[in-house]
Structures are given as structure tokens and as C-alpha cells.
Write a structure and sequence with these properties.
By secondary structure, the chain is of the alpha/beta class. It has 14 helices and eleven strands. The radius of gyration is 23 Å and the shape is elongated.
């Protein structure tokens, strides 16, 4: 098949490195004499024929700029659809309307699941490129944008440490990560956070927070940084025994995801932890006995983590992903996704790439976290 024009879309949340991927595609496409067209606002743009021409001469060094020039949205064409097959075929029919011969979809599991369905039901000429700051796609060791977000969160905790030290304060820092804790784990370890809470290991308020804070203050520490994923949550025993401001009923009343599970991210867990700590007179007394006035505040990093320009790693990874995706188009290897495996860019089926991954209990990051928490206060005990 002769490819003359390729469409590019970006879907889901914005992410440092999206423009890098677009530029990598454009570089190879120009060299191969292929025209690129930008499809605006993700799948919404394909459905509504929202496009712009992409002329490489107008986008020098696009890879250095954050965000996406194609805009983005969380539109999923399959939402509420009775027949995925029909929707998939309708999407493929848009190729003729737009005059494109192939499509490169850049996005996370939601965006790429649509691309996968298009290939499954219509054998569409689609290539996927994995994107998520959460780094929770199983098909690639790292996604572009992840390390930029880790650095932003790590820098924020570094900066908050100076305020925590100056005011002898406890900060609970909420980091993005609904189901997977990679961002919190990596940025927390990098910044030397004193307690790190992730969705993969439900925590005990008493054991994992209160006891640690008491041991730290008795070992001479006067300030503390708690890093928590937005999706971190207490285990059932602790929820029942230790918590005063929330209960099982609170979680049961949360909005549900498509599978009927409560959206724990809606808890605002950093504020809950602060509220619980402020109710603990025994903790305040422990601090006072060590000459420290107890003060605890929460900080939600939120969208600051996906903002700004990509770091060097993500710029280069984005360019490599874009180059590899365009090469797959030229070889007509559709239905696949580009992937970072070690130091090499590899190709895997979209159906495999969209699967999720999480931090496992045997991960060395789990061990590092636990050692960082306990060795510091143990080494200072008299």
C-alpha cells in the first residue's frame, strides 16, 4: 500500500513530550515525502473532522515545547455505544473523508484501546504510541512524560522541605496516581520523603503514619514530608479502627468507575490524613515533649505535574517514539504500538500494549521505600 498522507492525534490528559512525538513523526514523514495532518482534540477531532495541516517548516524544534499543538480531549467514541464494531467501522470510514491513509494515535490506555478496537474490527491502518505520566502501561518500560512529572514532583517536595524545616511542620503532599503509584514512589524516593503511600499497598494510619511520626520526632526530627498518591487508601482494618473522619460508608458512597469500583481519588486523601493527624492528641503530645509544636498541612500538586516543558529524556524518547511509529507506517505494520524495552524501541501488538501495570510487592522500589522510612530514624535512636 502506498502511503501519501498520515493523520496524527493526541488523546487523554496532556503530557510533557507529546509535541516531541509529533515532531519525530513529522521529521521522518517529510524525509519520506509523506504529508502529515493533525487531528484536533483526540478522537473528538476524528469524529467531527477537526484537522489542521502540519508543515514541518512552521514547527522548528517542536520537541522542546510542552503540551500538544493538536489539543487533546478525553473523548472515547465507544462510551455509551451499543456496538463497538459499528463505531470502529465508522471511525475508519473517516479516513476517506479526511484523505488520510493511516493514523498514528498517541495516548494512554483509553485512547489506545479505541485504536486497538479499530484494528480488531476493521483492520484499520493504525499505529499506537503510549503516553501517560503515570507510567502504568504494561507494554513499555517507560512512557514519555513520566520522568518529567517525577522531576516536577521531586522538585516540589524539595522546595516544600525548606518550608517544613523552617516552620517545623508536617506536609502531606498529594501526587497524581489514581491506580498506580509509580509517580509517588519515584518522586518520593528521589526527594527523600519520610513516608510514601501508594495505591498498591493499602496503608495503616496507626502503623504507617502515626507510629513513624512518633519514632521520627523521638529521634530528633523536627519536620516531615509525607508523599501520598491521590489513589492511596487505608486498609479495611485501619479504616474501621483508626479513622474518625471517614468510614467504609464514605468509600461506598464515592462515585463509581465503569467497573463499579469506588473512585478512591475522590477521597482527597491528603486532606483526610491531615484531618486525622490533627485529631490525635497523643501525637501532638509526643511532638511537644520533644520541643516541637505540631502543625500539619496538605499540598495537592495536581496538574502542575503534567505542565511545562519535557526534560531531556522525555524529549529524546518522544522523538524516538515518533520516528519508530512513522517507520511502522512505512512498513505497513499496523495494529502495533511502539515500546521502550531497555534502551531499544521495540514493536508490540496494541492489544498487549494497552494492558495496565502496577508496582509489585517484590519491587526494589518497595524495599527502598521501607528502608528509607525506618533506617533514618533507627540510625539516630540513642
Amino acid at each position: 500500500m502506498v502511503i501519501k498522507k498520515v493523520g496524527i492525534l493526541t488523546g487523554g490528559g496532556d503530557c510533557p513530550g507529546l509535541n516531541s512525538v509529533i515532531y519525530g513523526i513529522m521529521l521522518k514523514a517529510y524525509d519520506a515525502g509523506i504529508e502529515c495532518v493533525g487531528i484536533l482534540k483526540g478522537w473528538k477531532g476524528l469524529m467531527e473532522n477537526l484537522t489542521i495541516p502540519l508543515k514541518i517548516a512552521e514547527h522548528d524544534d517542536l520537541h522542546t515545547i510542552g503540551g500538544t499543538i493538536l489539543y487533546t480531549s478525553r473523548t472515547n467514541p465507544f462510551k455509551g455505544a451499543e456496538s463497538k464494531e459499528k463505531v470502529a467501522k465508522d471511525l475508519v470510514a473517516k479516513f476517506d473523508e479526511l484523505g488520510i491513509d493511516a493514523l498514528i494515535a498517541i495516548g494512554g490506555d483509553d485512547t489506545l484501546s479505541v485504536a486497538d478496537a479499530m484494528c480488531k474490527y476493521s483492520k484499520a491502518n493504525v499505529i499506537g504510541c503510549p503516553k501517560t505520566i503515570d507510567n502504568d502501561l504494561a507494554g513499555t518500560h517507560y512512557t514519555f512524560g513520566f520522568w518529567s512529572a517525577v522531576q516536577l514532583a521531586s522538585n516540589a517536595m524539595d522546595n516544600l522541605t525548606t518550608t517544613a524545616r523552617s516552620h517545623q511542620r508536617v506536609f502531606v503532599v498529594e501526587v497524581m496516581g489514581r491506580d498506580a503509584g509509580f509517580l509517588t514512589m519515584y518522586s518520593g524516593i528521589s526527594a527523600g520523603a519520610d513516608i510514601i503511600l501508594v495505591p498498591e499497598t493499602p496503608f495503616s494510619l496507626e502503623k504507617d503514619i502515626i507510629d513513624v511520626l512518633k519514632k521520627r520526632v523521638n529521634s530528633g526530627y523536627k519536620y516531615h514530608i509525607i508523599a501520598t498518591s491521590e489513589g492511596a487508601y487505608p486498609n479495611s482494618e485501619s479504616l474501621k479502627k483508626d479513622f474518625k473522619t471517614i468510614s467504609k460508608e464514605t468509600i461506598d458512597k464515592l462515585p463509581k468507575d465503569t467497573y463499579g469500583n469506588p473512585l478512591l481519588v475522590k477521597l482527597n486523601i491528603s486532606k483526610i490524613i491531615v484531618d486525622e493527624l490533627n485529631l490525635r492528641e497523643d501525637l501532638k503530645k509526643e511532638f511537644q515533649n520533644n520541643g516541637v509544636d505540631f502543625e500539619c498541612r496538605s499540598v495537592v500538586l495536581g496538574h502542575t505535574m503534567r505542565a511545562g516543558t519535557p526534560n531531556s529524556f522525555d524529549r529524546i524518547l518522544g522523538l524516538r517514539f515518533g520516528l519508530a511509529a512513522m517507520n511502522l507506517v512505512l512498513k505497513s505494520k499496523f495494529g502495533n504500538m511502539v515500546s521502550l524495552q531497555g534502551n531499544k524501541i521495540e514493536t508490540i501488538p496494541l492489544s498487549e500494549g494497552v494492558k495496565k501495570k502496577y508496582i509489585t510487592s517484590d519491587s526494589d522500589k518497595m524495599e527502598l521505600r521501607d528502608l528509607l522510612v525506618k533506617i533514618r530514624y533507627l540510625s539516630k535512636q540513642k
